[in-house]
């Protein structure tokens, strides 16, 4: 797998590519990093096939809509997302296939009602549900502290402790941690 973590201030985006099929996905693309994502795809000879936002972002500018229009690819978000540009709706357990890569959606409401995490065999992309040393805020629109508690303690923290956690934010230079 081709994997790159792209930091913009405290925001984290993730580029994953399948070297066999030459397909790629960008998770939580940030507006200022469009050229970086397109550059990685060109450098690696990959075609971005999907864009995924783990939740409705209130704290950074998602590049999903602009990239989807430029590339003619779908944007995947949870089925509860109010986003009009999300053309692929995911529910708990749904699988996104990017070549030979598999990302399974896990609905983890709390930070927002449409929050999802994306599971792979050895890692989980947690959006703003679980950060390194913290969690996402619940005081923004559709935030719910009780739902976040349930998502954390009854879903994420029951996963294999060896899974690597890749959050959508970190402001202290930390890039990965295990569950």
Structure description:
With 179 residues, the chain is of the alpha/beta class. The chain has helices at residues 34-44, 64-71, 145-154; strands at residues 2-8, 11-18, 23-27, 47-52, 75-78, 88-90, 95-98, 101-107, 116-119, 123-127, 130-131, 134-135, 164-167, 177-178. The chain starts with a strand and ends with a strand.
Strand order of the biggest β-sheet: 1-2-3-4-5-6
The portion of residues forming beta strands comes to: 35-45%
- CATH fold topology: Metallo-beta-lactamase, Chain A
End-to-end C-alpha gap: 21 Å
Number of helices: 3
Tell me which CATH architecture applies here: 4-Layer Sandwich
Overall radius of gyration? 15 Å
> What name goes with the CATH superfamily?
Ribonuclease Z/Hydroxyacylglutathione hydrolase-like
Number of domains: 1
Low-pLDDT residue spans: none
Reading the helices and strands in chain order gives: EEEHEHEEEEEEEEHEE
CATH class: Alpha Beta
Q: Shape from CA axes?
A: globular
In a nutshell, what does this entry contain?
The protein has one domain: Ribonuclease Z/Hydroxyacylglutathione hydrolase-like (Metallo-beta-lactamase, Chain A). The chain has three helices and 14 strands.
